Amino acid sequence: QQQVKQSPQSLIVQKGGISIINCAYENTAFDYFPWYQQFPGKGPALLIAIRPDVSEKKEGRFTISFNKSAKQFSLHIMDSQPGDSATYFCAASRSSSNTGKLIFGQGTTLQVKP
Amino acid sequence: DVKVTQSSRYLVKRTGEKVFLECVQDMDHENMFWYRQDPGLGLRLIYFSYDVKMKEKGDIPEGYSVSREKKERFSLILESASTNQTSMYLCASSALQGAVYGYTFGSGTRLTVV
User: Fold this and answer.
1) In Å, how far is A84's CA from the nearest CA of chain B?
2) Which residues in chain A land under pLDDT 50?
3) Choosing among A3, A48, A101, which should be mutated to test the B contact, i.e. which has the most B CBs within 10 A?
4) Quick one: which of B39, B40, B94, B110 has the fewest CB in 10 Å?
5) CA-to-CA distance for A13 and B6, rounded, in angstroms?
Protein backbone atom coordinates (compact mmCIF):
# COMPACT_ATOMS: atom_id res chain seq x y z
CA GLN A 1 0.00 0.00 0.00
CA GLN A 2 3.00 2.25 0.33
CA GLN A 3 4.21 1.76 -3.22
CA VAL A 4 4.22 4.24 -6.05
CA LYS A 5 4.70 2.58 -9.43
CA GLN A 6 6.23 4.62 -12.25
CA SER A 7 6.57 3.92 -15.95
CA PRO A 8 8.32 3.87 -18.32
CA GLN A 9 11.80 3.33 -16.90
CA SER A 10 13.32 5.16 -19.85
CA LEU A 11 11.98 7.41 -22.58
CA ILE A 12 13.46 8.89 -25.74
CA VAL A 13 11.65 11.81 -27.34
CA GLN A 14 12.49 14.06 -30.26
CA LYS A 15 12.92 17.77 -29.64
CA GLY A 16 9.51 19.45 -29.76
CA GLY A 17 7.65 16.27 -28.89
CA ILE A 18 5.53 15.45 -25.85
CA SER A 19 7.04 13.40 -23.02
CA ILE A 20 4.59 11.48 -20.84
CA ILE A 21 5.47 9.70 -17.60
CA ASN A 22 2.88 7.78 -15.62
CA CYS A 23 2.52 6.89 -11.95
CA ALA A 24 0.06 4.85 -9.94
CA TYR A 25 -0.45 4.60 -6.20
CA GLU A 26 -2.44 2.39 -3.87
CA ASN A 27 -2.75 4.24 -0.57
CA THR A 28 -5.88 6.41 -0.67
CA ALA A 29 -4.53 8.41 2.28
CA PHE A 30 -2.00 10.05 -0.02
CA ASP A 31 -3.03 13.62 -0.80
CA TYR A 32 0.05 15.30 -2.17
CA PHE A 33 1.79 14.27 -5.40
CA PRO A 34 5.01 16.01 -6.42
CA TRP A 35 7.40 15.40 -9.28
CA TYR A 36 11.13 15.76 -8.85
CA GLN A 37 13.70 16.34 -11.59
CA GLN A 38 17.29 15.14 -11.30
CA PHE A 39 20.15 16.17 -13.58
CA PRO A 40 23.34 14.07 -13.73
CA GLY A 41 25.59 14.70 -10.74
CA LYS A 42 22.87 16.54 -8.84
CA GLY A 43 20.26 15.67 -6.28
CA PRO A 44 16.57 15.66 -7.25
CA ALA A 45 14.75 19.00 -7.08
CA LEU A 46 11.04 19.73 -6.80
CA LEU A 47 9.56 20.44 -10.23
CA ILE A 48 5.79 20.61 -9.82
CA ALA A 49 3.16 19.18 -7.46
CA ILE A 50 -0.59 18.57 -7.30
CA ARG A 51 -3.27 17.85 -4.72
CA PRO A 52 -6.24 15.61 -5.54
CA ASP A 53 -8.79 18.45 -5.35
CA VAL A 54 -7.79 19.42 -8.91
CA SER A 55 -7.46 17.25 -12.00
CA GLU A 56 -4.71 19.20 -13.68
CA LYS A 57 -1.93 21.62 -12.83
CA LYS A 58 0.21 23.42 -15.37
CA GLU A 59 3.46 25.30 -14.94
CA GLY A 60 4.97 26.42 -18.20
CA ARG A 61 5.61 23.37 -20.38
CA PHE A 62 5.04 20.96 -17.49
CA THR A 63 1.55 19.63 -16.68
CA ILE A 64 0.40 17.13 -14.08
CA SER A 65 -2.81 15.26 -14.84
CA PHE A 66 -4.51 13.55 -11.89
CA ASN A 67 -7.16 10.81 -11.92
CA LYS A 68 -8.31 10.22 -8.35
CA SER A 69 -10.70 7.36 -9.13
CA ALA A 70 -7.99 5.45 -10.98
CA LYS A 71 -5.32 6.42 -8.44
CA GLN A 72 -3.04 7.56 -11.25
CA PHE A 73 -1.21 10.72 -12.14
CA SER A 74 1.07 11.68 -14.98
CA LEU A 75 3.60 14.29 -16.02
CA HIS A 76 3.38 15.78 -19.49
CA ILE A 77 6.29 17.79 -20.87
CA MET A 78 5.16 19.76 -23.89
CA ASP A 79 7.60 20.92 -26.58
CA SER A 80 10.32 18.80 -25.00
CA GLN A 81 13.83 20.28 -25.17
CA PRO A 82 17.30 18.70 -24.87
CA GLY A 83 17.67 20.60 -21.59
CA ASP A 84 14.78 18.55 -20.20
CA SER A 85 16.94 15.42 -20.41
CA ALA A 86 17.03 14.21 -16.82
CA THR A 87 15.65 11.58 -14.48
CA TYR A 88 12.12 12.24 -13.25
CA PHE A 89 10.62 10.85 -10.06
CA CYS A 90 6.99 10.92 -9.07
CA ALA A 91 6.18 10.78 -5.38
CA ALA A 92 3.28 10.69 -2.95
CA SER A 93 2.72 11.74 0.62
CA ARG A 94 0.16 12.43 3.32
CA SER A 95 0.36 16.18 3.73
CA SER A 96 -0.97 15.97 7.29
CA SER A 97 2.03 13.96 8.38
CA ASN A 98 4.51 15.91 10.47
CA THR A 99 7.37 13.82 9.22
CA GLY A 100 6.58 14.78 5.63
CA LYS A 101 7.74 11.42 4.34
CA LEU A 102 7.66 11.06 0.56
CA ILE A 103 7.29 7.72 -1.21
CA PHE A 104 9.08 7.86 -4.56
CA GLY A 105 8.49 5.99 -7.76
CA GLN A 106 11.18 4.06 -9.60
CA GLY A 107 12.26 6.96 -11.80
CA THR A 108 12.19 7.63 -15.54
CA THR A 109 15.27 8.60 -17.49
CA LEU A 110 14.24 11.00 -20.23
CA GLN A 111 16.44 11.71 -23.23
CA VAL A 112 15.34 14.44 -25.62
CA LYS A 113 17.12 14.18 -28.97
CA PRO A 114 17.94 17.39 -30.83
CA ASP B 1 21.24 29.81 -1.28
CA VAL B 2 20.04 26.97 0.94
CA LYS B 3 22.13 23.88 0.97
CA VAL B 4 22.39 20.27 1.89
CA THR B 5 26.02 19.25 1.80
CA GLN B 6 27.24 15.68 1.67
CA SER B 7 30.82 15.30 2.75
CA SER B 8 32.05 13.09 -0.09
CA ARG B 9 31.07 12.78 -3.76
CA TYR B 10 32.85 9.44 -4.23
CA LEU B 11 33.95 6.83 -1.73
CA VAL B 12 35.60 3.45 -2.19
CA LYS B 13 35.59 1.17 0.82
CA ARG B 14 36.50 -2.44 1.50
CA THR B 15 34.06 -5.15 2.53
CA GLY B 16 33.66 -5.22 6.30
CA GLU B 17 34.74 -1.63 6.88
CA LYS B 18 32.65 0.71 8.99
CA VAL B 19 31.58 3.60 6.77
CA PHE B 20 30.30 7.02 7.76
CA LEU B 21 28.38 9.24 5.36
CA GLU B 22 27.90 12.78 6.60
CA CYS B 23 25.19 15.28 5.72
CA VAL B 24 24.84 18.88 6.87
CA GLN B 25 21.99 21.31 6.16
CA ASP B 26 21.94 25.05 6.77
CA MET B 27 18.17 25.63 6.63
CA ASP B 28 17.26 24.84 10.26
CA HIS B 29 15.06 22.02 8.96
CA GLU B 30 13.50 19.61 11.41
CA ASN B 31 13.37 16.60 9.08
CA MET B 32 16.32 14.83 7.53
CA PHE B 33 16.35 11.74 5.35
CA TRP B 34 18.75 9.21 3.87
CA TYR B 35 17.84 7.54 0.58
CA ARG B 36 19.71 5.20 -1.67
CA GLN B 37 19.27 5.43 -5.42
CA ASP B 38 19.64 2.39 -7.65
CA PRO B 39 18.68 2.10 -11.34
CA GLY B 40 15.18 0.74 -11.77
CA LEU B 41 14.48 0.91 -8.04
CA GLY B 42 14.19 4.66 -7.63
CA LEU B 43 14.77 6.35 -4.30
CA ARG B 44 14.36 4.06 -1.33
CA LEU B 45 14.21 5.47 2.19
CA ILE B 46 16.78 4.06 4.59
CA TYR B 47 16.20 6.16 7.72
CA PHE B 48 14.74 9.50 8.62
CA SER B 49 14.86 11.82 11.58
CA TYR B 50 12.29 14.40 12.60
CA ASP B 51 14.20 15.85 15.53
CA VAL B 52 17.56 15.72 17.23
CA LYS B 53 18.25 12.24 18.60
CA MET B 54 15.02 10.97 17.04
CA LYS B 55 15.10 8.47 14.21
CA GLU B 56 12.78 6.10 12.41
CA LYS B 57 13.45 3.22 10.09
CA GLY B 58 12.53 3.60 6.47
CA ASP B 59 11.90 0.84 3.97
CA ILE B 60 15.42 -0.66 3.83
CA PRO B 61 17.19 -0.07 7.17
CA GLU B 62 19.00 -3.42 7.35
CA GLY B 63 22.75 -2.99 7.55
CA TYR B 64 22.51 0.72 8.31
CA SER B 65 22.26 2.95 11.34
CA VAL B 66 22.04 6.73 11.77
CA SER B 67 23.02 9.42 14.19
CA ARG B 68 21.61 12.89 14.71
CA GLU B 69 23.30 14.65 17.60
CA LYS B 70 22.77 18.15 16.22
CA LYS B 71 19.86 19.54 14.23
CA GLU B 72 21.96 20.36 11.19
CA ARG B 73 23.84 17.07 10.90
CA PHE B 74 22.58 13.59 10.00
CA SER B 75 25.02 10.73 9.61
CA LEU B 76 24.47 7.39 7.91
CA ILE B 77 26.58 4.51 9.19
CA LEU B 78 27.26 1.25 7.42
CA GLU B 79 28.28 -0.99 10.30
CA SER B 80 30.07 -3.56 8.11
CA ALA B 81 30.06 -2.58 4.46
CA SER B 82 29.06 -5.20 1.93
CA THR B 83 29.18 -5.19 -1.86
CA ASN B 84 25.37 -4.99 -2.10
CA GLN B 85 25.60 -1.59 -0.43
CA THR B 86 27.37 -0.17 -3.46
CA SER B 87 25.01 2.61 -4.48
CA MET B 88 24.32 6.33 -4.70
CA TYR B 89 23.32 7.74 -1.32
CA LEU B 90 21.24 10.89 -1.14
CA CYS B 91 20.58 13.01 1.92
CA ALA B 92 17.60 15.36 2.05
CA SER B 93 16.05 17.78 4.50
CA SER B 94 12.66 19.43 4.87
CA ALA B 95 10.71 21.59 7.25
CA LEU B 96 7.96 20.01 9.35
CA GLN B 97 5.19 18.76 7.04
CA GLY B 98 7.96 19.23 4.58
CA ALA B 99 6.55 17.08 1.81
CA VAL B 100 4.35 20.00 0.78
CA TYR B 101 7.23 22.46 0.88
CA GLY B 102 9.65 20.21 -0.90
CA TYR B 103 12.73 18.30 0.01
CA THR B 104 16.16 19.81 -0.52
CA PHE B 105 18.59 17.11 -1.60
CA GLY B 106 22.34 16.98 -1.48
CA SER B 107 24.30 16.06 -4.60
CA GLY B 108 24.83 12.51 -3.41
CA THR B 109 27.68 10.22 -2.41
CA ARG B 110 28.53 7.40 -4.77
CA LEU B 111 29.80 4.57 -2.60
CA THR B 112 31.62 1.59 -4.04
CA VAL B 113 32.31 -1.37 -1.75
CA VAL B 114 35.00 -3.72 -3.06
Assistant:
1) 18
2) none
3) A101
4) B40
5) 33
